[in-house]
Amino acid sequence: MSEQATIKKQAAIEEAAHMESLATEPAPAKPNPAELGAAEIEVRHLTKKYGGHVAVDDLSFTIEKGTIYGFLGPNGAGKSTTMNIITGCLGATEGEVLIHGQSITEEPLAVKKRVGYLPELPPLYMDMTPEEYLQFIMRAKKVPQALQSEHLKKVMEKTRVTEMKDRLIRNLSKGYRQRVGIAQALIGDPEVIILDEPTVGLDPAQIIEIRELIRELGKEHTIVLSSHILSEVQAVCDAIMIISKGRLVASDTAENLTTLFAGKTTLKLEIKASQEEAAAVLAGLEGVEKAEYSAGEGGTLRVEIHPVGSEDIRESLFRAFAGANLPILEMTRLRASLEDVFLELTGEEKPQPAAPKRPFSKKAVKARTPETAASARPVSGTVQTPETAAPAYPAPEAAQSAGTPEPPEGDSAKEKEEREE
User: Fold this and answer.
1) Strand locations in 35-175, DSSP E?
2) If one looks up domain 262-335 in CATH, what number appears?
3) Which of the residues 56, 150, 234, 323 could staple to 246 if both were Cys, CB 3.0 to 4.6 A apart?
4) Whole-model pTM above 0.70?
């Protein structure tokens, strides 16, 4: 055998040995997106169109693992549409949704196992008991038979519906129906739970119960909570996203969002001074952008002061008015609330308080007597106005001049008989 043939043979043996080692070597584990710091939910350039109407417009955001996110927006902003796309119930026109690093369009079954969803109207069967319904959901989600009994017990205890498990769902209160709806979202132990208006239609006590349940679930799951109730989102959520007309306009904690608008702080003062005296004091004070005046009670003056930026001028105001011998009776600092932030970002107008209704008074209701009944009876065939309103019977002088007899006092005997019958 020639030297060249020997070299080729040796190279072939080495190549075969290398390939054999690769075949026996275990494949590298697929990296876990959560361990790499990836978001639990990632929405990229999401768009949904219904004909010419754009419900969701190039929406992008990320939600970190183990947080409760509030999804805020006015009616028609695209909240429910976005949630339906994230859960795989609705297809997007454009864009991509990733749950735990997996695409909802490329791996729909794998992604749906990671997501529990409670729509605004819970998908309940009224002729089932909670236990029967949750068993049905477990079969639909393909929970292994050997695990179903223990899993059902855990879910019912977590949502506190164990005591009602044998009642028909149609006989449950709205609060317990909502709990059963949340229980079905927990079947399969998903990492992500999406709740669309979970407290709508509940009474105050039920709302408190559902909020406490959501806080408990947030310790083990990533939760997205859709609502237009600002106090609810502020009480429950770790962070807030605000969308308007299908677009994301803010994403941060409630504290940071209100701090962002803290420059709009307003000071309200009530002082014993004339407008000219107050204006003279404020004219020599730095940090005042604008002042508005109105009359107060008991001859006082109310002043609404808008400071420059976020500067705190309360001490300067106190010293300036004290130096001018003009006592400040009251000073209130008004910070921007989450409602102010929401209205500012979504372009909504703050609703004006309704005028107070006039209280009902029994004194205003006069007893119906023959005298008042006669004067209250409208003239047939005419529209009664202040000018045309007149007693049903002519005055005695007019009756005599017209040649007609004067009516008796009160109702006639015939009228009394008819009323008694």
Assistant:
1) 41-50, 53-63, 68-72, 94-99, 102-103, 115-118
2) 3.30.70.1340
3) 56
4) no
